[in-house]
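Look over this one:
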Amino acid sequence: MMDQLAVSPLMLGLIGGMFLLLMVFAGLILNLQYGPRARLRRRMEAVTGVSLTGGRKGAAQGKAQPGGGRKKAIQTKLKELEQQRKQQKAVSLKQRLIQAGLQVSPRGFVLIGLAFGAFSAVVYYLMGYNPIGIPLVLVAMGLGFPRLVLKKLIKRRQKKFTANFADAIDVIVRGIRSGLPVGECMSIIGREFDDPVGPEFQLLIEGQKLGMTLSDVLDRALTRMPTNEVKFFAIVLVIQQQTGGNLADTLSNLSNVLRERKKLKDKIKSLSSEAKASAMIIGSLPIVMTLLLFLVKREYITTLFTDPVGQIMILIGLGWMGTGVLIMNQMVNFEA
């Protein structure tokens, strides 16, 4: 394998040229995505849910019928949210990109992923490994890895939003008790809070300025940030608009509930930390042992990477290892 790499300066030039071509290609895509027209179009779609090519998407089912009391209104709103959740069970790639806060189109995301997968497959082939693994590398690095990163970004953004959401509700409560309207309180949150809380509230205000109803802008907020906390907030505001009542006290109670939920999640995290540490140790043990054998007796472990049978065994072992890691991850993760 080392001889093959040493006698191929042309291959090294090919890798460098391909890498440069991919960088230029990615630069062109990012330039198109971050242009002034693209930024304006994405802003309008995020606020109103209106696509420049397809019309209105995700419109609200309509308001609940007046009358029947506060309890009936809550039940009606819960049924509407449940129906929307069933209809949107398969979240589109565009919605995932919005939830992650990425300013890139689905087409650009897919092209960048495929380019990265092709580059990884070329590097894998030039390293002298068995060509039978090229399709696996192409699929894993071109389709699986970008979506895994996207999922992590969505979770991190939702976690950051939830951590500061109770403080934002407290700002609304104090503003209402001081005599400010709800819209002005939301504007203060949009100006003063960092991403993602501030921009999300700013989109709510911009949607109402464009003539959208409160129910519509809250439905769009649930699409961008599909967390239980935002769902509770949407239900409170919609029911308050329909039935009336003391909004400050209701939002204060909601803030207390959200803080108690956070305490419960922190408690679950501390109780499951030992199991997570054990899972990390077990999952990293094969990799650590391989590295130790490579340092102690390199010729003994190198056969596993150079022999075709050994390479197939590595692929099978990685598959089983990945399955075990996923199972252990499900065993130690709990939802509050």
Remarks:
- Strands lie at 50-51, 55-56.
- Residues 272-336 form one domain.
